Batch of 3 targets.
Target 1
Amino acid sequence: MMTHITRRRVLGTTAAITAASIAGNAKAAGTIRVYAGGESADKTLTLRMTERPAPVAGPGQVVMKVHATSLNARDRSLLRGVRIYGGKGGFPYVPFDDNAGEVLSVGPGVTRVKPGDRVICTHFPLWVDGPWDDATMSKMDFGVNTDGFCAEQTAVLADGLVKIPDSLSYEDACTFPNAGLTAWNAVMVEAKPQAGETILTLGTGGVSVFCMQWAKLTGARVGITSSSDEKLARMKALGADFTINYRTTPDWNEEAMKQTGGKGLNVVFNTVGIGEMERSIKSCASNGRVMVIGANPVAPAGAETQAVGLKDFPRSMIMRRLKVQGVLVGSRKMLEDLVQTAVARKVKPIIDKVFTFDQVLDALRYMEGGEKVGKIVIKVA
């Protein structure tokens, strides 16, 4: 049985995340509102609204007015103290890496955008194109080692920006830099499903739903899993060709085999963690591809504690000639391709709920409740 959804701890209770708004939301001249975090004396993690001086664009930077941001599983992990690049304690950076906004001002040397442009910024602004290089490109990662977008304004590298058309709302566009782009990379760049192939994407979170949407564009037959029949019915209405309830069918890989007449899946998008790797591998056809997305389990901290044996890993990998591919977000070039395709093919992100900037903690608690499908958006301005 999958445990990544059934065992939950809600933010604001066991995780003890609190928020304190500025009285009356009044701001001093030349300041902006941001959410920032840090450890309190009793070691509970806090996330509070506060004021900071308005940013100024340095060389190669722009000041971006943030109109919208959205939540991802990694945001919850960071708020719970998971350190992606090592280190310990606290939450020193402004959270959230999803974003959409407009350019307010540009710094010296910036020519590719101008004030007034509507833009989104890539998750890794140092990854413009070409292959990924962790040693250099991860040195700027929003919410991890660089301030993110849970703020009214922020300064970002102009090289990471992608212009968006007026036809794309800020709320829709802000879902692309993380979940949308990760799924795009997994589907269109790495897995490359062909028309007639059968793929399965695990769960109904933001990345998984985007995987379904992008894969449908290729002509593939697409399935999706959930523990909720209600969510699965919604996925059917949104285009899923088949669905599997992993609560009523814990060995969902067997149902996947039935769905393919015993041949197996051509592609599995594992967005939920290492706990589902064995079933992902066992569900594959010969020459199948397993896309591994997300370094941490979807489950809240401490919920998935059993070691994963992967006893069938070597044999299935070898005998079926499987490809297991790790996937992270994507480059600026990929994001440009995504935006162009989304507009041309009229792909609309699946947004479950929109919260205001004063409701960030409510949005996080709602995310932990496990009822959402697709993305949760926070309208900043």
Note: Confidence is low (pLDDT under 50) at residues 1-26, 39-44, 299-308.
Target 2
Amino acid sequence: MKYGNIALCAAAIGLGLAAQPASAAVDFGKPGTPVKLVVGYQPYYTQSWSGVVMNGKKFWEKRLPAGSTVEFQIGLQGAIIVNAMTGEKQHLGYVGDMPGIAATFRYIKERGGTDIRIIGSLGTSKQQCNVFMVRNDAPQFKSGVEAVKWMDGKVTSSPHGSCTDRFAQDTFKKAGIKPEKYLNQNIEVITTNFRAGKLDAAVIWEPTASKLQIEGIARRAASGEDFDALDGGFLIALNDLISQRPDIIRAWLEAELDAQLYLLDGKNASEVAKMAQQQTEQIAHKILWSSLYGDNPKNVGGGEVKNQLDFVVNDRVRKLLDDATAFLFSLDAKPAAAAKVRPEAVADQIAREVLKARNLTSPLGIIKAQPLSAYKE
């Protein structure tokens, strides 16, 4: 599996870094004037595909002031985007729950740093980031719980510092097991090691899970459905942008709402997968479609809800946020510097106003799993 020229340096992957001094604040101009935005997004992370739609359909063009430009930059993991935003090289980011939470701790009152805030939700699910894969010759399991218990004493892996890492560590504790090794590997290395027979199991996100499954590289074995474990994605922004240009935040969230509604419309499923294919490398259209719309048997972690589009930090998203932050704070590396994010770290008021103005409520709806027979190229 190749991902072009995307950097994978180790420094970009760790989330347990101390707050770093911010560079001089970016001048985003006066309200109403054109703006130049740099957006970090993850076409290789299905739950954040409203960013793929924003890039592909360019909904932002009719929302931002005339003359504005947007550069979309790919991050193979959310941590890469968070690091770019910490240096104010990116201004908005589409990330998973763990990097999204960790981003809010890049600013600490006593030490300063870069103030990054959560302005909206990309969705919640139990089978987007939380997917266990096992080697092809592993036993046939009756349930996902049985599959995870089999991993006791085995060689496992996930990209540490990601949403999969939180799920893996939490699930190992719930199942009362301890793998022989729990390796820190990116999705490309995990794919290579499954092919080489060097991994017993791994936790990975979509669409890589569907790619491994459909190409016969590894078998799906369990998901958050088996452990009632939510995963989620966040839209984050520099507070410099929020404070200087609330008009830009509102415009972007208007366009983001357009994108999430586009994702929810089942008639757009094939087109969404096509856009994702254009923005990724060497992933078949059918795999991409399956990652967001395809169903899986219950005994391997399948469930009805492929993704719930929440848009704002509603009660469901808030519980995920609180639970995940507490878990991060419990780790030795302390990716979260406190058991809860600071109150101002969630800045979704404008998103709520946008929803209300359109007479909509959260959640917007759910993307239901469909049988493979529903697939259309």
Note: The two ends are 22 Å apart (CA to CA).
Target 3
Amino acid sequence: MPEEARAAPVEPTPEPIHPGLPVFVGVALALCYWQYLAWMLERWWKDEYYGHGIMVPIVSGYIIYRHWDKITSLPRERFRFGLPLTALGLALHAWATYVDVNFPSGFALIITAFGCVIWLWGWPVAKAIAFPIAYMAFAVPIARLLVDQFAQPLQLFSAKFGASFASAIGVPTTREGTAISIPEYTFEVAIVCSGLKSVIAMSALGALFAYMVEAPMWKRLVLFAASVPVALFANGSRIALTLVLGRIFGPKVAEGFFHTVSGLVVFLLALIGLFIVGSVLRCGKMREDI
């Protein structure tokens, strides 16, 4: 007698998600983090280092929108291993609230949101939106901590670089600390001119640029890492150009109109620098799904 065919194992049916559960979770997170969210919005508006902050969630939302068809086609099932990650984020937020330090709550919110996505829809969906969620870290205002640690060294570096660059192109300069003197006037490299603001903004732009190109992961990491020296080079070039304008046209031109638009100059120089690095790495082709 032939052996009886064994019945194929029946795969368990994924536990269905109640349509109102994601809404409930979203409202609960908003209530839990509302004080931090209000503080973050205020920082975006007032903190000169995080004027780009409002653009970060817009970029993240756009990336999710562009991938929405793919995201909705992925298999969805609740994955309970997301709950420990959610609990970790909430614990970090509770600790930050207890010690009255705001910026850790930004990272806690990202961890909590990612854990909730894994719990509600599973790993495939979480993996698909991992970058736009992680990208939100560039909107977390931590400038004061960075200013205390890095602003003065960067201030001195920018003064040295700007003075050396100006001297190399024929402008007679002398430097004492962060003060650069030319025959016409003395230019003081202030904290806000240290390049830290450019580094913070260009790091966010570099991460986005590295995500958008078609390239191996190691090239993307190199491109992202290059955003820091590119930002410092652009900021030093701005200082040198200020000295050149002061030499030719006088202090009013150098510290007047040009000082007002110099932030745009730094951005354009840094953006060109990123494209040059991408070209050297042969990362010129952009992803078609962005």
Note: The chain is about 70% helix and 5% strand.
